[in-house]
Amino acid sequence: MQQAVQLHHLRFVPYIKAADIQSRVQEIAAALSKRYEGQTPVFISILSGAFIYAADLMRAYEGPCETAFVKLSSYSGTQSGGTIKTEIGLEKHVEGRHLIVVEDIIDTGRTLHFFLKQLAEQKPASILVTAFLRKPDAAEYAVPAELVGYDIENRFVVGYGLDYDGLGRNLPDIYILEDAPE
Ligand code: IMP
Ligand code: MG
């Protein structure tokens, strides 16, 4: 595993190794393959962060499946409570389908809370959420994520699809923001 990395002006230190990430992804994919046996679920990846996890998860998934993408951004503006902005909407018709929503990380839960509400309006047969990371101490909205890779502390992480101001998505390991020196 690499040593610390610098992205813009911040230093990040190793947190979850690529090998551990890969074995956790295999476990989650195996659980999904079993659960959707005999069906053709649609993986809905939330761009940009989830693209790496979704690609690994789908390649480890055994059975027929389809894929779709949405691009969402958190938008709080002047409204309290905030909402999410849809940058790229769902093109696929998902009524009656079994949906697997793939997210990189659940932080406050705002993004998924609003997206799941929108998705439910399309009357899918079922919705399951998988997020590779979750920060339980940051939760502001309850999100029914059934398959989570790791629950982590409430600090900023990068790598495996996650960025800091555009950088770091390509790192195969996950890194955490280094504690600031006193
Ligand atoms: P939420 O809406 O607060 O749950 O935040 C979800 C989005 O914020 C994620 O999809 C990420 O894009 C971003 N995010 C939250 N925490 C982190 C982090 O530690 N590193 C990088 N991006 C993060
Ligand atoms: Mg994201």
Quickly describe the structure:
Helix content is 21%, strand content 35%. The protein is an alpha/beta fold.
Features:
182 residues; alpha/beta; 6-stranded mixed sheet; 3 helices; 21% helix; 35% strand; globular; binds inosinic acid; binds magnesium ion
Mean pLDDT: 94
- Poorly predicted ranges (pLDDT <50, ≥5 residues)? none
Which term fits the overall shape? globular
User: Helix/strand/pairing class, anyone?
Assistant: alpha/beta
Extended strand count: 10
State which percent range the strand residues make up: 25-35%
| Helix content bin | 10-25%
Total number of helical segments? 3
Distinct small molecules: inosinic acid, magnesium ion
Largest sheet: 6 strands, mixed
Describe this structure in words.
This protein has 182 residues and is of the alpha/beta class. The chain contains three helices and ten strands, in the order ββαβαβββαββββ. The protein has helices at residues 18-35, 51-60, 110-120, and strands at residues 5-7, 10-16, 42-47, 66-75, 83-88, 98-106, 126-134, 145-151, 157-158, 174-177. The strands form two sheets. It has a six-stranded mixed β-sheet with strand order 5-4-3-6-7-8. The chain has a four-stranded antiparallel β-sheet with strand order 1-2-10-9. Helix 1 (18-35) packs across helix 2 (51-60). It is globular, with a radius of gyration of 17 Å. It starts with a strand and ends in a 5-residue tail after the last strand. The chain binds inosinic acid and magnesium ion. Residues 49, 74, 103-111, 156-158, 162 line the site of inosinic acid.
